[in-house]
# Entry
Amino acid sequence: MRIAVVLATALLLAACSVVPGERPPLRVANGTTLKVALLVNGQVVGTFGPGEGTPADGFEGALPPLPWTVVATTSTGRVLATMTVNPGDVSMSESGGHASARGRLARLDLSCGRLDVWAGGPQPLGPAPGPGAPGDCVP
# Structure
């Protein structure tokens, strides 16, 4: 009986919460006119020109194990966005045919477009990009 309860509990937890492995997908959508470098734990893992981003299935570069300090910079090294991703920050769940995802997001609205850097599920939605500020698109 006890084995059945443990098994049922494990199946219930598996159905309710799925936590990806040590390296969740890391994604970038550069909707700005700037060239952006992405650093993870101080190492450049990719650069993204205007309108570029990672594939839908996530960053394909070599990423270290979590935790991550993720920084997006301009070509001159100006920091645009930062975020920290710790073990357990990214999860996906499904219940009753409805799926949900939880992750980390660093978003910056500039006068020349929006930059999103995120770990986890699909690209976060809304709100519409803000106007930015004059001079915020200088590299």
User: Anything to note?
Assistant: Helices lie at 2-16.
